[in-house]
Amino acid sequence: MSQSPAYKRILLKLSGEALMGDDSYGINRNTIQQIVGQIKEVVDLGVQVGIVIGGGNIFRGVAPAAAGMDRATADYMGMMATVMNALALKDAMTKAGLIARVQSALTMQQIAEPYVRGKAMQYLEEGKVVIFAAGTGNPFFTTDTAAALRGMEMNVDIMLKATKVDGVYTDDPKKNPDAVRYQTLTFDEAISRNLKVMDATAFALCRDQQLNIKVFSIFKQGALTRVVLGEDEGTLVHC
User: Fold this and answer.
1) What's the angle, vertex CA 227, arms to CA 226 and CA 228, rounded to 5?
2) Is 157 annotated as contributing to ligand binding?
3) Does the annotation list 163 as a binding residue?
4) Phi and psi torsions of 124, nearest 5°
5) In the chain, which stretches have pLDDT less than 70?
6) Which of 23, 44, 91, 130 sits 20 to 30 Å CA-CA off 8?
7) How far is the C-alpha of 14 from the C-alpha of 17, rounded, in Å?
8) Which secondary structure element, helix H or strand E, spans residue 224, and what is its range?
């Protein structure tokens, strides 16, 4: 296996739900350690890693728990949930021997740095992992959109969307055993086939700025490394 990465700088989009493992809520310690172990593998290959983390394992602005709430208020609560996840991720990375920095789009100076593009790029070039918290800092936008935005601002080579499924399929593979995984898809094909790759705003941003997306399973051992090495893992959505 070649040890030469296909990408120099990546933006990894992690959902909050990914941190739950098999739990129904919160952060599963074993799961977060497994995810950090995969990230460490690619950092050790010399790849620069930025991460955008969701907050759905704690609170989500469009979740049933937010029913009846003012939407903007609920979204700000969701942003704060992503900061909690970012701190947990940083703690696990520190214990694994990685150097990580949390930058928040909401000002929380006691626990996280404010998001500053130049500083974030400097950290990446120094080999530090940068965890972008609090989404875009604006209500009504998802963390998928934040990932697209940060990916473009950081001039990454590719955005990696980590999910529970190892790619984009013709149908739900859990319900249809005959569903086939797409190796590659164009943005236009994904739209015309109504494949829910990610939030529509984020998807349009990536298409317009020609930022390719790789969808893969973070729970498949070694999958992140195989993606970074350019192997046949997950589904590549491209222009």
Assistant:
1) 90
2) no
3) yes
4) -60, -45
5) 1-2
6) 91
7) 8
8) helix 223-228
Q: Does residue 60 have a known ligand-binding role?
A: yes
- Annotated ligand binding at 82? The verdict is no
The annotation status of 142 as a binding-site residue, yes or no, is yes
Residue 50 is assigned to a ligand binding site: no
Q: Is 55 annotated as a binding residue?
A: yes
Alpha-carbon distance of 161 to 215, in angstroms, equals 5
For 28, 165, 185, 191, the CA distances from 79, given in Å and listed in that order, are: 20, 25, 31, 28
Q: Are 114 and 125 in contact (CB under 8 A)?
A: no
71 carries a ligand binding annotation: no
Find where tokens 């694994």 sit. Answer: 96
Residue type, 211: L
Is 132 annotated in a binding site? The answer is no
**Is the CB of residue 21 less than 8 Å from the CB of residue 31?**
yes
Consult the annotation and say whether 15 binds a ligand: yes
Residue 2 confidence (pLDDT): 52
Is 59 annotated as a binding-site member? no
DSSP string, 112-152: SEEP-HHHHHHHHHTT-EEEEESTTSSTT--HHHHHHHHHH
